[in-house]
Specification:
Layout (H helix, E strand, L loop, with lengths): L2 E11 L2 E8 L7 E4 L5 H13 L10 H17 L3 H15 L3 E7 L4 H4 L7 E2 L4 E2 L8 E4 L9 E4 L2 E7 L10 H11 L1 H5 L3 E5 L5 H10 L4 E6 L1 E4 L3 E7 L5 E5 H9 L6 E6 L14 H7 L4 E5 L5 H16 L4 H13 L9 E5 L7 E4 L15 E8 L10 E5 L2 E6 L4 E7 L1 E9 L2 E2 L3 E5 L4 E8 L7 E5 L6 E3 L5
Parallel strand pairs: 1-4, 4-7, 7-17, 8-18, 9-10, 9-11, 11-15, 15-16, 19-26
Antiparallel strand pairs: 1-2, 2-3, 5-6, 12-13, 13-14, 16-17, 19-22, 20-21, 20-23, 23-24, 23-25, 26-27, 27-28
Helix pairs in contact: 1-2, 5-10, 8-9, 10-11
């Protein structure tokens, strides 16, 4: 997709603000002045009205949609008035002549009072359209930083590393059910080899480090709780060894991701992930990750319902795997959300430091993956059988090998995993509870067999037992 950029710099000017065009197909230097647009109370009321309008209704102009249009029109008229509006119209005409999209890139880092506004609602009343809902005018929060990243070349699949963090001492999010719906919606992409999802076995910072060290990923997808602290800025809540929340700063996550050069994007489905501190424009999670080198970050500025998330993620990753630039992919994902919610499409915020929105150059010419070949010399296997039992019969346990989820295990089922010879870490998990890791060394052609079931000495315990050493029991679940 061809594109032209219209860069708008928002900054303070006396008691008000200015919007100045610093680059566009129609020249630069055009300026618009405006004052304070909304009070804090008005912003809070808008969020409440948006929350009430997440469900679709039969009314074409339902209250929250009309509110969003009025709010977006105020934003639009503030930054596109007089010379800047004329510049926008001429830029749109020029983009159409070139058969290109016109990317609206807002630079708000120098003006944190305005950065907290939901600019994604920009509404052009003359055209009756939200800019961010059209691939022709995608909206980006742009940070111009030194050494802009370039697209990486490679082949499909698009590799997504998923972190599902649901600490026991925070409100339940039902992330497993939500993610099951997401992966169900993208089975076609998975089966065709366009996208792969790897779920972190433990939602801890140390496991994230190990995963980034052992594999190559293109996207980090975080699902969980987030918050904002005046002292530390944006926070994501990972899960500690005891199953309780561990607050991790965006700077800490950025340190781990900085050297993972294949990582081009982060998607943060966490509360307050897009929030910024009025006193520090880089304090928010998204801004910090962008500053730490992640080319693009999508974060949520309002609560994002499960129904919206299930529409957003498949559309986003499908568009990226199809070769869409990230701004166009986010716009397509917004449209998918719009089909189930008339206002939640504006919740995702796209932050970028890359001058070019094409972050991936992944070949799509390859055929769907062939069936796995016969195990080459030097491989062995790990077999795990779950005994028939009444306790927990309807619930599956996760099989973790080397820190990654290898599959699910139901009552009475046996699974076999081909593995390279050597030492591996084996573990089973149910919800946030995990067994201690079992170290097993397998030689070429050897199969290490395990069985899991009840502990003969306890009630409500799930155990992993080595078949070769029946007296060796390993606890999986704590006492209930």
């Amino acid at each position: 997709m061809r594109h032209e950029d219209l860069d708008l710099l928002l900054s303070r000017a006396g008691n008000g603000f200015t919007a100045r065009v610093v680059h566009s197909p129609a020249g630069e230097g055009q300026c618009a002045e405006f004052g304070v647009l909304f009070s804090e109370l008005e912003l809070e009321n808008l969020q409440l009205r948006i929350a009430a309008g997440r469900a679709r209704t039969r009314r074409v102009e339902a209250g929250p949609v009309a509110d969003a249009k009025r709010f977006g029109a105020v934003l639009f008229d503030a930054i596109f008035s007089g010379d800047t509006r004329e510049c926008l119209r001429r830029s749109q005409d020029r983009a159409r002549e070139l058969r290109a999209n016109l990317r609206i890139r807002l630079r708000v880092a120098d003006c944190p009072e305005l950065a907290g506004l939901p600019w994604e609602f920009l509404y052009d009343a003359s055209d009756d359209s939200f800019l961010a809902l059209s691939v022709g005018t995608p909206l980006i929060r742009y940070l111009q930083l030194p050494d802009p990243p370039r697209a990486i070349a490679g082949t499909l699949p698009l590799r997504v590393l998923v972190v599902r963090s649901e600490p026991a001492n925070l409100p339940e999010l039902q992330l497993e059910q939500e993610w099951a719906q997401v992966t169900g919606a993208v089975q076609g992409l998975i089966q065709s080899g366009a996208v792969t999802f790897t779920t972190l076995a433990k939602a801890s910072l140390s496991e994230l480090r190990l995963a980034l060290m052992q594999g190559q990923f293109h996207v980090l997808h975080f699902m969980g709780h987030g918050s904002f602290s005046d002292e530390t800025g944006g926070l994501l809540y990972f899960t500690g060894p005891d199953g309780r929340a561990v607050a991790v700063t965006a700077a800490d996550v950025g340190v781990l991701m900085r050297d993972h050069t294949s990582m081009r994007m982060a998607v943060l489905n966490a509360c307050e992930g897009a929030r910024i501190d009025p006193g520090d424009p880089f304090a928010g999670v998204a801004e910090t990750l962008v500053r730490r080198g992640v080319p693009a970050v999508v974060a949520m500025q309002f609560e994002f319902t499960d129904r919206a998330a299930v529409e957003f993620a498949p559309a986003l990753y499908g568009a990226l795997a199809a070769g869409f630039p990230v701004d166009a992919a986010v716009t397509e994902a917004r449209k998918a959300v719009y089909t189930v919610s008339p206002v939640e499409w504006a919740t995702p915020v796209l932050h970028m430091r890359a001058a070019d929105a094409t972050l991936f150059q992944l070949s799509q010419s390859q055929a769907p993956p062939a069936p796995p070949p016969a195990p080459p010399p030097g491989t062995g296997a790990i077999s795990i059988r779950r005994r028939e039992e009444l306790f927990g019969r309807g619930r599956s346990v996760s099989v973790l090998i080397d820190g990654f989820e290898a599959g699910k295990l139901h009552s009475g089922q046996r699974v076999l995993y081909e593995m390279p010879s050597g030492t591996h870490r084996v573990q089973i998990k149910l919800d946030w509870n995990s067994s201690p890791e079992v170290l097993v060394t397998i030689a070429p052609g050897e199969c290490a067999a395990f069985v899991c079931g009840h502990s003969p000495g306890g009630t409500g315990r799930q155990m992993l037992r080595s078949v070769s050493n029946p007296d060796n029991y390993f606890q999986l679940l704590r006492e209930q």
